[in-house]
Design brief:
Largest sheet: 10 strands, mixed
Distance between the termini: 29 Å
Helix content: 10-25%
Bound molecules: zinc ion
Number of strands: 34
Radius of gyration: 29 Å
Structural class: alpha+beta
Number of helices: 10
Amino acid sequence: MNRKTALASAVAAALTLGTVMVASAQSPALASGTTASGAGFRATTEAGRAADLDRAAKDAGALAKTLGLGPDERLVAKDVLVDNDGARHVRYDRTYRGLPVVGGDLVVHYAKNGKTTSTTWAHEGAIKVAGVTPKLSGQDAKATAERSAKHVKQARTTSLDSSQLVVWAVGKVPVLAYRSTVTGSGEAGAASREAVLVDAGSGAVLDQYELEQTIGGTGNGVNVGQVSIETSQGGSGYTLTDALHGSTVVYDSYNSPQSNPAQNARTFSKSSNSWGNGSTSSRESAAVDASYGLAKTWDFYKNTFNRSGIRNDGRGAPAYVHVDNQLLNAFYDDSCFCMSFGDGSSQNGNIPLTALDVSGHEMSHGVTAATANLNYSGESGGLNEATSDIFGTMVEFYAGNSTDPGDYYIGEKLNMGNGYLRRMDNPAADGSSLSCYSSRAGQVDVHYSSGIANHFFYLTAEGTGAKTIGGLPHNGTPCNGDSFGGIGKDKAAAIWYRALTTYMTSTTNYSSARTATLQAAADLYGANSQERYIVSKAWAAVSIGTALPDPGTGNPSPSPSPTSSPTGNPNPGGNALVNGGFEQGATGWTQSANDITNSTQQQAHGGSWYAWMMGYGSTASETLSQNNVAVPSTGSPKLTFWLKVTTQESGSTAYDTLKVSANGQTLATYSNANASAGYVQKTVDLSAFRGQTVNLQFTGQEDAYLSTIFLIDDVNVG
Ligand SMILES: [Zn+2]
């Protein structure tokens, strides 16, 4: 197990953010050939998912220790995805002394045999803040939030607005912070809400973002035409309850404020089962659009990725149409697990915002919240928006509705001035979106920085050059002048979905999104696949990274080869120890913690297993021992083992120690002062125990500050 991963990394380098750890040795692709069924994931049942989450919750305590989290941290199981081959990806959120940790999420990857293969961190390592008593008062935090809001005008806090203490671990150094909500006029209407994170010590604004995840401040036309929808019959008539799709209910919000769309909401019910008239003169028409769009989105996720609803739990989210007045927007709000659709405004001829790609876009915000939960600001915010555009587009293709055929435009059914909201093939054509990565990507509105990932997705799916798709002109124009063909939208979507759900976290940025998709492509199609190669070409074409070598030219990327042969026991005939190289796991050994590991976070000396002792950076001790070790009765018996010491300490003073003892008698002591770049063989004389049967023990001890890791392998007594 890869305990203390955090501190190990802290020894090697400063804390890194948004890291995706990629397994260096690729397992065989999960889906071979031309399909990417389920994006490599098994279908799940409600009961199966509940059992998986239960197991993840039960594992959380031991796992936290294994990962090297501090005593004030707890892991909260959030999501479990199981690959076709049985490998599992378990997503956790973190708390610190009971406070939510923003940026504390992580995904632990288990091979099918249950062993941990790697961990994807939003914020790598243990989290520690000076205390959880804020210097700044909640009132002062709210006042700062009101003063600093930039997404809403005339920001104020209302009685409904929360101000909550959190640990903000998005930055390099985690701090105690207030997350305040302010309300004012903004893109989501007159009562738009914005979250502002304020440092609870210094009062500095750390982050701010819109709370409703919108389609983008402009509108969407409607009209899916004549379609069939699922309704329910009860009592004297019918309601818009879709029992086939998680009992999704579409309500008439009755112009409730967008901050509380349920306030005046009513159920649609009537005696006949015929709904709407294709125009806004019937309040039911927009509801038909929403019901249809949400059902198609549900079916897309179910039939394409084996995902059952937004949270993969079979439950539908309520949807509200006719929200607010003159609302030229639609949005998903995770706090109510609900979707809201405005009626449009005079700006777009009062066409309700219930088109297919809008429904797909908003429901996909829910999927993102339930998985990677990409922070809705900076580069991660752009990736969040792009994910909704990508899957909104895929829903449009999936539905195959002749009134609204699939294309890579967003909101083309809007009655907008330039004919669309966004274009994935050429994002910059709208005058605001970014087509190519630049260092300012994290500073622009998330609906504009999304352009980079939208462009990547288009180029991956369709390649470069001009095409007509869904009756609209498209032209994939790479930023680097490259030219290549795409792998098709289904494969591109499978790669994005697998990356989102398995290898992205709340702090994923563009660079780590590239890594995540390359890993997902390797999982699905193989490390040397054309698909993975094209993914790398498409990222390079939006100015992120360089393309991998072309696997088709006989110049494949070098495949990882074993760097050392298993030498668990270099001298099997002469070792009085059982399993001295740890290649049989814990067999023969007694350990106070799960020190014996094959984690790829550190290297074994021989084989793949080794003992990882200490690395807490706080007062701790551990033991690793073997009983009934028969010390040879002739010659000069000795204990040999390979030791690698890495430390945050400096100087020659022994702060953190590793002692070797036989029958309780200390024979040798090593410490942070013995730090070395690689393994060094150590020899301990056992002549005093000649012919005896002893208990051999390693004892690690750390003081209160700075960590030292002792790696032990290939232990021999002979
Ligand atoms: Zn959005």
